Amino acid sequence: MVKPLAFKGDKKSKKRKHPNPETSHDPNSKNALTTIEPKASTTEEDDSWVSAEAASDITGPILFALPSATPTCIACDTNGKVFTSEIENIFEADLATAEPHDVRQVWVANHVAGTDGISFKGHHGRYLSCDKFGILSATREAISFEESFTCIPTPDIPGAFSIQTQRADDNIKFLTLSSSSDTTTTNPHEVRGDAETTSPNTTIRIRMQARFKPRLKANKESKAREKISRKALEEVVGRRLDDEEVRRLKRARREGDYHEVILDVRVKGKHDKFAS
After folding, report:
1. What is the CB neighbour count within 10 angstroms for residue 53?
2. What are the phi and psi torsion angles at 182 (to 5°)?
């Protein structure tokens, strides 16, 4: 289930348990108010933002942090106009700490089936697009080659990418930060898709929610599987365990052969019992 975006400083709503009028006054009832709700998954509740390290990491809500003197990102309004927006949630102008404060700064990334391309959907449900002149917009509801991009990791800067267009006429260019050509705005920067080569201005850092990062999610799930007490393991095996057996069983939970190792430990316990 997709959850609404949460920004730094937002208050989290607390769930209230409503008593059942038939059982709330009965202290012997199993449905009394002392019921404890199950603890939610830590991985699913992780709303922190991290840097994507590989193209395969890029999925879910993301932020395009641009290499401007004043930290900015790619944003769009409800009409699909793409512009640069100043980043407020950042520590000491370090793009590796950037987080969105406005829903217009957030894009939802999805891998395009059967290709290496990635699409980016804006908050208003339209896709980021780049035409043959290098002009960015977000007005289309369907994905074509103009709404598909390739994210190429920058070798010298972890978490940074050069974002390449995927035009069918082989007129492939890169997204780049440039001086604004719009005289009606006070914004000094704009983003275009007409750079022919990579440069510092084409280096874009992609920030994403930690709960969508595959490797981070796998590590957290692995640690969650590993967390089990000695007492719980002894109850499963049916006898007291030594330190080596506890370590072996915890390692098996992490590696996925837990049930096989449980059987081995049980058999070993029976052999030791008869040997004594």
Report:
1. 18
2. -90, 110
What's the sign of the alpha-carbon dihedral 139, 141, 144, 145?
A: positive
Q: Residue 137: how many CB atoms within 10 A of its CB?
A: 18
Q: Are 69 and 205 in contact (CB under 8 A)?
A: no
The candidate with the shortest Cα–Cα distance to 61, out of 100, 116, 35, is 100
Smallest CA-to-CA distance from 211 within 225, 202, 221, 201 is with 221
Q: Which residue has the tokens 């004594």?
A: 276
Contact assessment for residue 124 and residue 78, using Cβ atoms and an 8 Å cutoff: yes
Task: Please tell me the pTM assigned to this model.
Answer: 0.64
Q: How far apart are CA 182 and CA 83, in angstroms?
A: 11
- Tens-place pLDDT, residues 137-150: 999 999 999 999 99
End-to-end CA distance of the chain: 55
Per residue in 151-199, pLDDT (tens digit) is: 999 988 888 999 999 876 667 899 999 887 666 667 788 999 999 999 9
Alpha-carbon distance of 249 to 257, in angstroms, equals: 9
